[in-house]
Every structure is written in structure tokens, then in C-alpha cells.
Amino acid sequence: MSAAIEQAVNCVLSLFLIGLVGYVLDRRGWFGPETRVLVPRLVTLITLPPYLFVNIITTFSHDELIHLVYGVLVPAASILLTYALGWLTSRLLRVRRGRRGLFRVGYATSNTIFIGLPVNVALFGVEALPYVLLYFFANTTFFWTAGNYSLSLDGERPPERVFSRETAKRLFSPPLIGFLLGVLAVLAEIRPPAFFVSAAGYVGGLTIPLAIIFIGLTLASANLRQLTLDRDVVGLLLGRFLISPLTVILILRLVDLPPLMAKVFIIQSSLPVITSAVLLAGYHRTDTAYASVVVSLSTLLSLATIPLYMVVVTLMFG
What is the pLDDT of residues 111-132, one digit of tens each? Predict the structure, then answer.
């Protein structure tokens, strides 16, 4: 038990120090608005796709990958169930218009890449990456389809269809394409040249530090005066940090998964509100201040909840 707590605390502190670099440099004026856009674009478009591709082709064999795919059903089911609970809670709390869509989507989806990827790799090693990607696939698919539609119903723009050309563009983002290309390469038993794999590995190695530096930038630019705890904020935070992981734990009681896969799914489900929620809130002209508050607060709170859930998964699976 003490070893698990020490590992979780060390993980959080190491990631905190990397994030502190971004926070301090932003406060010192190194980064302007353009840089705050550049860093996530670098991660999303340049470093993350090769990172996912290389790790898929170097981690799995053909048979191992086929056996693994069934595991995506657990995060998919938990996200759908959590969204339904978020919808019910938003009605019970009478969450006001402009916040309802984000409340429900925030209940169900988490920051599986910018926080989930470095946290799980730091906690469990690179062996956890495949399971991180399974949750990422379910999380991303839901967010850019049903989640996007839910937010559009709450905004000033005309509601979007669940599946459309624009939805497909957002869904099939470079990270997901990198992931899928890696899967196809393994299934087709195609091995890229060594120089290509090496170059992709070097570029992909920038992913985790850049992702954490971006979180530091986000917190540095947050308006702390807006971080108020009203009913709508507290309700969403309880859903994100309590209801969502409990839903995964309940489903895991009904299915038999490898311990590491189960641990990763619980950690992934307990992470902060997905950062892209702020972007979609702005696009659909909903309550962007509320979106910024729940993303910032949930990110800060995760410094405490990540060690807590590391203890939980250690007690459950050893």
C-alpha cells in the first residue's frame, strides 16, 4: 500500500514539475496567445500521431491486437451509462440552459490524452499505453459525435447532426489516424523501415512533456476569479471524480479483464474534464466561462484525485 501511494505521489509531483515549467514561463511573459495555440497543435498534429503509431507497432503482435480489441467495450459502455446519469442529474439539479450540454458531456468524457497519457505511463509504464488508447478511442468517438450534438442543442447555433462531414473531420483527428494506422500495420503485418520508426520515435518522444507543459499554460491563463463553486460546478465535479470511476468499477464487477487494463480504465475515467470542451462551448456559443471553470478546477483537483485512485486500484487489483 505505501509503495502504491509513494508511486502515485512521485508520478503527480514529477508531472507537476513539468507543468510548472509552462506555468512559470507563461507568467513571465514567454508565451502569448499564439504560443498557447501552437503547443496543443504541435502535440495533436505533429508529435502524438507518430507516438501512437510507433508504440502500437512495437508493442503488439497480430494475435495480441485482435485479442485486445474487445476491451474497448468496457469504456464505451461506461461512457454511455455515465452520460445517462449526467443527463438525469442535470434535470434533478435544474442546470440552466447554456450549461446543460457541457454538464452531461463533462460527466461522461475525460482528458484521456493531455493528462491521461502521461499519468498512466508514469504510473504503470509503457505497458499501459494500449489500454490508454482503447479508452481514448471510446472517449474521442463519443465526444465528437454524441457529445458534440449534446452541446449543440444547448447553444445559440443551429443544432448539428450526430454524424456529419464536420463531425467526421473532428473525429478522425491526426491522433486517431496515427492510432488506426498502427493497428492496420500490425494486422497487415507491415513493418516500416527502421529509419522511419526511429524518426517517428524521436518526434513522438516530445508528446508527454509538451502535453504537460500545455496543462501548465492552461492553468496560468485561467482567470482564478471565475473559479467559483456553485451548484452546477460542484455537481459536474462530483460526476467527473466520483460517478464516472464508480461506473467503471461497477462494470468491472461484471466482466473479467486483465488487472492492468482494469487499472488504466479506472484512472482514465477519473481524470479532469476534457480540454476540448472549452473549444466546443465557444463554437456552439454556450457558457464558455462555465466551461473554463470546470476544466481548470477539475485539472487542479486531479493533483489530489490521481493518488487517491492509484490507492483504490492497488487495493482492488494489487
Answer: 888 788 888 888 888 888 888 8
- Contact call for residues 201 and 1 (beta carbons, < 8 A): no
Cell triple for 91: 434535470
Cell 472517449 belongs to 139
* 3-class secondary-structure state, position 284: coil
Cα distance between residue 70 and residue 181, in whole Å: 18
The rounded distance, in Å, linking the Cα atoms of 107 and 79 is 9
Q: Averaged over 251-261, what is the pLDDT?
A: 90
pTM above 0.70, yes or no: yes
Ordered DSSP codes for 266-296: HHHHTSPBPTHHHHHHHHTTS-HHHHHHHHH
What are the backbone angles phi and psi of residue 98, rounded to the nearest 5°? 100, -20
Eight-state DSSP code of residue 306 = H
Going by C-beta distance under 8 Å and a sequence separation of 6 or more, which residues neighbour residue 80? Answer: 108, 142
Angstrom CA distances, 31 to 45, 101, 163, 204, 292, stand at: 20, 32, 37, 23, 19
Query: Going by C-beta distance under 8 Å and a sequence separation of 6 or more, which residues neighbour residue 211?
Result: 43, 113, 114, 115, 117, 118
Q: What is the grid cell recorded at 57?
A: 507497432
| Spatial CB neighbours of 255, under 8 Å, sequence gap ≥ 6 | 74
Partners of 110 in the β-ladder = 273
Answer yes or no: are the C-beta atoms of 174 and 48 closer than 8 Å. yes
Percentage helix, strand, coil for the chain under 3-state DSSP, each rounded to 5: 80, 0, 20
